[in-house]
Amino acid sequence: MAIIEAKDLEKTYYNDSVATPVLRDVSFTINEGEFVAIMGPSGSGKSTLLHILGFLDRHTAGEYRFDGKTIDDYSKEEIARVRNKKMGFVFQAFNLLPRTSVLENVKLPLLYSGVKKSLRDELALKAIESVGLSHRVHHESSQLSGGEKQRVAIARALVNEPNVIFADEPTGNLDSKSGQMIMEFIQKLNEEEGHTIILITHETYTAEHAQRIIHILDGKIDSNKKVDHRHNARDHFKK
Amino acid sequence: MTLNDSFQTALTGLQANKSRSALTILGIVIGVAAIIMVMSVGQGAENLILGQIQGLGSRTIIIEPGREQTGPSAFTSILSDSLKERDVEALRKKSNVPDLVDLTPVVLVPGSVQYLGETTGATTIGASDIVADILEIYPAEGFFFSQDDINAQASVAVIGSKIKDELFGLSEAIGEKIRIKNRNFRIVGVLPAKGQVTLFNVDEIVVIPYTTAQKYLLGQDHYNTIIARVSSEGAIPSAVRDIELTLRASHNIDDPDKDDFHVTTQADAAERVQMITGILSLLLVSVAAISLVVGGIGIMNIMLVSVSERTREIGLRKAIGATEKDIMTQFLLEAVMLTSLGGIVGIILGAAFSYLASLVLSRIVALGWTFTFPISAAAIGLGVAGIVGLVFGLYPAREASKKSPMEALRYE
Q1: Which of A141, B182, B272, B394 has the CB geometry, 3.0–4.6 Å to A96, for a possible disulfide?
Q2: In chain B, what residues touch A98 (CB-CB under 8 Å)?
Q3: CA–CA separation, B143 vs B356, rounded Å?
Q4: Where are the domains of chain A?
Q5: Rounded average pLDDT over A80-90
C-alpha cells in the first residue's frame, strides 16, 4: 500500500518577485515497508523534497498525499500530530538538545504525544536499547561520539513507532565506520521492524543500501530504479 | 503536552543558562524589593502614627478653631481666636453635652525654658490638670497643679523627664524655679519618661495652667485647642453633634458651612493619616514600578536572544511534533518563571531590608517603630512580577512559536 504519493509536485521559491523553481514534475510513490533513497548532488532539490514529504514545508503545485491525505486536510495542530506520531526524523546534524541526557532526548517526542509519564521511561529505554546505547542512558548528549549521537537521534525517531522514518544525510557528519554502523541500524529498522525508510543522500554508496533509488537532478526526477546490488551494512563489517 | 511537562521543559531551559537567568532577573528583584520596602516602611509609619492617635484614647474629641483643614496646615487654627472661655463654660453644661465627662482648654506657648542660665527646647502648653487624665500620665515626682492654681493663675509647672534631666541632672527639681518668657515658674511635678504620646513628646513637655499662660505669657483670651473626653466610645457621634450645636449657639452661627471651629475624633484623624500614608505609598510604589518595567524590557531582550539562539531547538521540537501552542507555552513559562523567581527573591530581600530599616528607624526616632511585613505587599510583588513576565515574555514566545521548523533546522 502506498504511504507516500507525489504527483507533479512543484516547489518554487519567490524572492522579490524572482521565481526560483526548485522542484518540477516530481511524481513517485513509496509503499509501506519500502526503503527508498532519494539521491542527488547538492542543490538538486532533494532536501526541499524531504521537507515537503515530512510536512515541514508546503509544495506550490501538484499533489502530495501522506497516508492518503494532503497537508491541506490537516490543521496546524494535526500536522504537528502527524509529524509526532507517524513520522520520525533523523538529521545530518543530529539535533540533540544540548546539556540534556540521552534518556531525556529520546523521551522528547513522547512529551508531545501525550504518553503517560509512567510509560515514557519504559518506551524510551526500549528505543535506546534497540540502538545499543543502554550503557549511555544518563550521559549528556555532548559526551557522546558522533556515531552515538546519531544513534540517539535514531532512537528518538523510533520512540513513537512512526510509519515512516525520514533520514536526511544521516551519515554526512560521520566518519565512514560510524556511518556504516548507522546504515546498519537503518537497514535493520527496515528489514526487522518493517519501518518505511526514506533516506536522503548525495553518496551513491550510501544510497545503494536502499531497495530503490530516486535520482533527483536540477529539481526533476532523473531516474527511479530498483537497486540491483544492494549493500548490506552487516556484511561490510564481516570483511 | 501537559502543563506539568511544559513546566519541566521551561525549568530545564532556565537551568541551562543559570548565570544569565540570574542577571536577567536582577531588575525584577530590585523592583519588587523596592515595592516591598516602600509598603513595609509605609505600613510601619502608618502604624506608628495610628498608635499615637489611639494613645489619645478612643473617647477623646479634639475641638480646634477655624474651618476644617483639608491639608496638613495648622496655621489658620493657630491664628484663629474663635474658641474662648464662654465656649468652655457652655460645653461644660450637662444639659448641652450630656455625654461629656471633662475637658481641658489647651494653649501653646512657643519658646524655650531656662534654669540658671541653662536653656533647653521644650513644648510648653497651657492646660488644666484634666490633661493628665486624658494623656494618662501622672507625675512620677510631686503632683499636678490643681484647679485652685488654675483659678489663681499661679506660676507653677509640671515638666517632662528629659527637661528635668537636662536642666537639673540628678539633683532635685521639685520646688526649683524655671524661666519661661521672663516669668518664673515653680516646678510642682515631674512626669515619668514616656516618649511620644499622641501630639506631644511627653518627655520634652512643660505644662502650666492655661490661665497663667493666657494672661502672663501670651496675652490672649482664646484657646488653641479644646480636648474633651466623653463617657464611652459609642457616645462619640452624639457628643460631636451636641458640641457642634452648643458652639454654633454660642457663636450665633446658623449655617454649618460657616462654622468657625471644627471637631475631630480619633477615627477622623486615623482616617486622614491612612489617606495620607496611602497616597504617599502609592506614589513611591509607582516609582518602584518603573524599575519593574525596565526589568521587564530586560527580560524581553534576553528572551529574544534566547529564542534566536535556540532556533535549532525550536525547529527540532516542531519537527518531532510540538505545536505552536507548545512552543509558545514553553517560552512564556520560561519568562514567567524567571520573573516570578525574581519576585520571590525580591520579596525576601525587600523584607530583609525593611527589617534592617525598622531597626535603624527605631534607633533614630527612638519610637516604638515596629517591623511590619504586609502579606498584601508580598502578594502584589509576586503577582506583578508574574504579570511582567507574561507581558514581556509574550512577544518573544510568539516569535519562537512562529519559527518554521525547516528554517529552524537549517539554521547554523
Answers
A1: A141
A2: 16
A3: 41
A4: 2-95+164-238
A5: 93
Specify the pLDDT at position A238.
Answer: 52
Å between A208 CA and nearest CA of chain B: 26
Nearest-neighbour CA in chain A from B334: distance (Å):
17
The dotted CATH code for A2-95+164-238 is 3.40.50.300
Kindly state the average pLDDT of the residues B19-31: 87
CA–CA distance, B299 with B387 (Å, rounded to integer): 12
Report the complex ipTM: 0.90
Q: How many CB atoms are closer than 10 A to CB A194?
A: 10
Report the C-alpha gap between B21 and B333 in whole angstroms. Answer: 13
Residue that the C-alpha cell 513546566 belongs to: B7
Rounded-to-integer distance, Cα A209 and Cα A199, Å? 10
Contact residues, chain B to chain A, C-beta under 8 Å: 1-2, 5, 9, 12, 16, 312-313, 315-326, 404-406, 409
Q: Where are the domains of chain B?
A: 3-53+271-410, 59-265
Q: Which of B143, B107, B120, B301 is nearest to B219 (CA)?
A: B107
Instruction: Identify the weakest region by mean pLDDT among A59-68, A102-111, B190-199, B290-299.
Output: B190-199
CA dist., res. B287 & res. B290, Å (int): 5
Give the cell for residue B113.
525654658
For residue B287, give the C-alpha cell.
516609582
